[in-house]
Design goal:
With about 90 residues, the chain is an alpha+beta fold. The chain is about 40% helix and about 25% strand.
């Protein structure tokens, strides 16, 4: 299944990502980095930093699930080999 991948920066600082099915146009993954509210206390800033870390982990989890779905449906030509690109570049 081919995808269209749209990326950008909201307000010039906050990355966004949208992955759409090229055939149907349906959005498969939509993600944006959390924007920090103004005037946070020190404790709120620490909690917000944890929220940002969770957002990045959530993105990778969703990308993993999307790839797994493609693999299970037989849409990938072959299973990607872990570290194969490193061996090719080093050799």
């Amino acid at each position: 299944m081919p995808y269209h991948i749209n990326t950008g920066l909201r307000k010039g600082t906050y990355p966004t990502l949208q992955i759409c099915d090229a055939t149907t146009g349906s959005v498969r993954v939509a993600w944006e980095y959390p924007q920090e509210p103004a005037d946070l206390t020190e404790e709120e800033q620490e909690l917000f930093q944890l929220r940002r870390e969770e957002a990045v982990h959530d993105l990778f989890r969703r990308l993993f699930l999307l790839t797994t779905e493609q693999y299970l449906k037989g849409e990938l030509d072959e299973l990607p080999r872990l570290g194969a690109w490193r061996r090719q570049r080093a050799g």
